[in-house]
Amino acid sequence: MSYLIADSGSTKTQWCIVRSGQEPEECYTTGINPIYLSEADIRNLLVREFPVGCTGIEKIWFYGAGCAFPEKNACVQSALSSYFHCREVEIASDLMGAARALCGRRPGIVGILGTGSNSCYYDGKEIVSNVAPLGFILGDEGSGADLGKRLVADLLKGILPSELKELFFAETQTSYAGIIESVYRRPLPNRYLADFTSFIRRHIGFPEIEQIVLEAFDSFIGRNLMQYRQISETEISFTGSIAYIFKKQLERQLQKYGLKPGVFKQAPMNGLKEYHKIDMIL
């Protein structure tokens, strides 16, 4: 049997081709988000970017950003079925992909901390409850965009030491005017702000920088995780670059609330391969 697993955000899609008796093959394409791409757009993207020679696929599992609406899922399903000549195509949200990758078939609370943030309670089969993430203006607490926003705000308001301010402008080659322009007048300010997490990572040894991370995670826990009634009786597992890079700080804040840290994975793909192993023998 041969099957295909995809984990897609708006920026990139990671694909894994699994064939019986062979090592899995992985590749990447541009992200496939049906909020922004039509069925024809998705097919054209695959024609341009997907490696040739991917034939004989019997089933596809596609986990993607924007795949939370039946009409959008149908768009992706039709495009994949047509391109890969595959009748069995299952579409699910990136949050479901994270839940299956982190928890398998066990219940748990799941958090995604990347450019944005999200969370859910997963009963081992389905996502039972989900606190609305709301994007980086109204929510996305603990995300890369949130960390970057807190850092920039504290710098420009003069809250952080002058040493850090000098380091920031020297390393990022930006200016006050450039930040205001990028945040308020250019597209994708959330990605722009999230890029500053590389500065935070390099200078996490400064107590003021670490405090920004701790406060962001405190906000994510208080405004999201604490709303799940199962919070005290189950582990909380995470995926996403921010959770992975700042695992030490995240675990500290979870323990502050008396919560149980679970599995941490930088990306869901390895967990999804493990989850779908059983499908090779069914």
UniProtKB/TrEMBL annotation:
InterPro entries: ATPase_NBD, Euk-type_GlcNAc_Kinase. It comes from the Bacteria. Coiled coil: none annotated. Gene3D superfamilies: 1.10.720.160, 3.30.420.40. This is ATPase BadF/BadG/BcrA/BcrD type domain-containing protein. It comes from Odoribacter laneus YIT 12061.
